[in-house]
């Protein structure tokens, strides 16, 4: 609002600057007029009267010209706030220069529209390809899991752990493409939180066993939250995946605080450095741990935060190096989204 007031207040100043040459010419003409009258020894009363008669139409012309100047400024300001749609319905040009400017703007609009359409088409094609790939890759992954499950050995358990990572990365790619696409519709309903947390943790059963980590889920059976089960499950899987990845000994605890309406996924892992903590939700940021773990992508927490924003859930991390990390999901009060 203050910027608009300052801009409108400066309109007279801009007008005076734009008409400076004409105003200077007017002053020169008045001076010449006065000199001529003085040379011809015209009485002062007659000179003042003639000057007043000349001043009246010039002042009227300046007032009308300023009104048109201010009106054009307001019209252009409205066009600016309505870009790019406003360029389709430009006012009728007044003069050759105005017509040339409008032709230039329309040509730029056509080029911009063509560029946007081409970019949208490329993005849609890329989204369709990766969505198809994410679905099709699940078939060979499921076959590999079936084959490995028929053998109970240290080698098969290690391969199952790596296979689980591959499945997780494929799901991450699918959710990344869906997040801003037409398939990202959210369906809110009350969901059993303990059931969702247990299902998410169950996907990491193999790494839990291989690393000999404990798992404790302290969520009452009747706890329900208003959310989209599919998207929330992905967020829980990402939080548990990070907890398992960076915990060498100890375990993971998933607890529910009814008073605060918060779910906490806590681990006893390596923790996150204080200088990295404010940036963990940035896209592509991996921090010191990511540089040590070459498989880190910096996408998982970014996706989780973006999903939580759309679900109206809060997500924050608390961590201390050598102690562990707490990922805290905060849910809105019951029925808050519906209301």
What is the strand and helix layout of this fold?
Blueprint: H1 2-9, H2 11-18, H3 20-39, H4 44-81, H5 96-136, H6 138-149, H7 154-179, E1 189-192, H8 193-202, H9 205-211, E2 214-218, E3 224-227, H10 229-245, E4 251-257, E5 262-267, H11 287-292, H12 300-311, E6 314-320, E7 324-330
Parallel strand pairs: 2-4
Antiparallel strand pairs: 1-3, 4-5, 5-7, 6-7
Walk me through what this model shows.
With 339 residues, the protein is of the alpha+beta class. Among the domains are: 2-81; 186-330, 2-Layer Sandwich (Heat Shock Protein 90). The protein is built from twelve helices and seven strands. Strands 2-4-5-7-6 form a five-stranded mixed beta sheet, covered by helices on one side. A hairpin with a 3-residue loop joins strand 6 (314-320) and strand 7 (324-330). Helix 8 crosses helix 10 (229-245). The radius of gyration is 35 Å and the shape is elongated. It starts with a helix and ends in a 9-residue tail after the last strand.
**Strand neighbour order, sheet with most strands:** 2-4-5-7-6
Q: What name goes with the CATH superfamily of the domain at 186-330?
A: Histidine kinase-like ATPase, C-terminal domain
Computed over alpha carbons, the radius of gyration is: 35 Å
DSSP summary, beta strand count:
7
Unreliable spans are 335-339
Mean pLDDT: 82
For the terminal residues, how far apart are their CA atoms? 32 Å
In what range is the share of β-strand residues? Answer: 5-15%
What is the CATH domain class of the domain at 186-330?
Alpha Beta
What share of the residues lie within helices?
55-70%
CATH architecture level-2 label of the domain at 186-330:
2-Layer Sandwich
Work out the helix count: 12
């Amino acid at each position: 609002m203050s910027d608009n007031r300052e801009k409108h207040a400066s309109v007279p100043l801009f007008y005076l600057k734009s008409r400076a040459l004409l105003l200077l010419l007017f002053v020169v003409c008045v001076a010449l007029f006065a000199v001529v009258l003085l040379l011809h020894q015209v009485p002062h009363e007659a000179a003042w009267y003639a000057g007043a008669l000349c001043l009246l139409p010039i002042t009227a012309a300046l007032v009308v010209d300023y009104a048109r100047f201010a009106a054009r400024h307001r019209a252009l300001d409205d066009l600016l706030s309505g870009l790019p749609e406003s360029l389709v319905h430009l006012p009728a040009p007044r003069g050759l220069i105005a017509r040339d400017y409008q032709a230039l703007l329309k040509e730029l609009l056509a080029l911009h529209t063509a560029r946007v359409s081409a970019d949208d088409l490329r993005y849609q094609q890329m989204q369709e390809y990766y969505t198809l790939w994410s679905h099709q890759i699940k078939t060979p992954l499921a076959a590999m899991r079936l084959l490995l499950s028929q053998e109970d050995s240290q080698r098969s358990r290690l391969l199952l752990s790596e296979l689980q990572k591959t499945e997780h990365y494929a799901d991450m790619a699918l959710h990344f493409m869906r997040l801003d696409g037409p398939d990202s519709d959210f369906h809110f309903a009350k969901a059993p939180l303990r059931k969702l947390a247990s299902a998410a943790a169950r996907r990491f059963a193999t790494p839990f066993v291989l690393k000999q980590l404990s798992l404790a889920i302290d969520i009452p059976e009747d706890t329900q939250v208003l959310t989209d089960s599919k998207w929330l499950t992905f967020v829980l899987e990402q939080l548990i995946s990070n907890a398992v990845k960076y915990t060498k000994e100890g375990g993971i605890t998933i607890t529910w605080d009814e008073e605060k309406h918060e779910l906490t996924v806590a681990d006893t892992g390596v923790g996150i450095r204080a200088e990295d903590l404010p940036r963990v939700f940035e896209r592509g940021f991996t921090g010191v741990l990511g540089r040590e773990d070459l498989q880190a992508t910096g996408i998982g927490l970014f996706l989780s935060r973006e999903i939580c924003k759309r679900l109206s859930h809060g997500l924050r991390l608390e961590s201390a190096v050598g102690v562990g990390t707490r990922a805290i999901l905060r849910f809105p009060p019951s029925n808050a989204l519906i209301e």
